[in-house]
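Here is one such protein, fold included:

. . .
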Amino acid sequence: MYRMSNRDGTSNNPSRTLRDLPPLSVPKKRKPKMPEKPSRLLACPLEIQLHVLEFVPREGLAALSRANKHLASIAQPVLHREVDVNCPRVSFQCHAASLVLVLRTLLSRPDLAQAVQHLRFDGYDFVERRLNELPTTPIFHLTDEDKLKAVKFIKALDLYQGLDWAQGFLKGRVDCLVSLLVALTPKVRSIYLGEFFSVEICYLRKLLSPESFGNPGGSNVHKFEDLRHVTVNNHCATYHHTRFSFNNVYQSFFHLRRLESLSISGSFPEDSRPFTISTKLEHLRSLELKC
């Protein structure tokens, strides 16, 4: 650094002694900035938590539901949104049909029954059948309290032959169990009935009859106002019964006034009589009938 001086030897720069200078400071080592910790899921608003759960697979939802009560309260409704059940032959490897286990859950948790939007009864594995007999499955996984809840629920529907339905349920008849599961889920949006589950449709037909839809003086069945899509695979109806005819069960589904798509495949008898659809299907966009 150059110092500027006058002709007389004086300097323009103010002189400072070493005492006036500040002491040299050794810069401190700064800790490297760590990236901020990601926010915990529980710290996020409930809307964000629900949005995140939409992308979690079912195995992850099941694990989250066992983590704590809060996660269970928001994960279990998402987990039960789609219910896919079968009714296999009970053995040492399979102690209970998933149909029975789901019924046990929904009977004890009406809030989860409200969350069910899609029901799929697939016939990929089914109980042993005998000619002209209604298929049954053991219900010993249901407690006496579960059975009492189911019987009270069926009686409260105030349907014709409701007592027979309750008795059939206690015997483990598959049709009675399926009908009960449908009746327990008022916000269901789609129903798929596989080739074995769609053979005997006795009490399900009564649920779908117009006089059952909560009319004054009628029964207390919900009106299936959210049901939009129904698929019925009824190809096996003529193979398992010679005394009773289940070939005309498809007529009951035409009473669902808010349906958008209806697909029915089955063995329709040649002597089927034409029937009049009293319900106006204003929202129906797709109708598929296969023989």
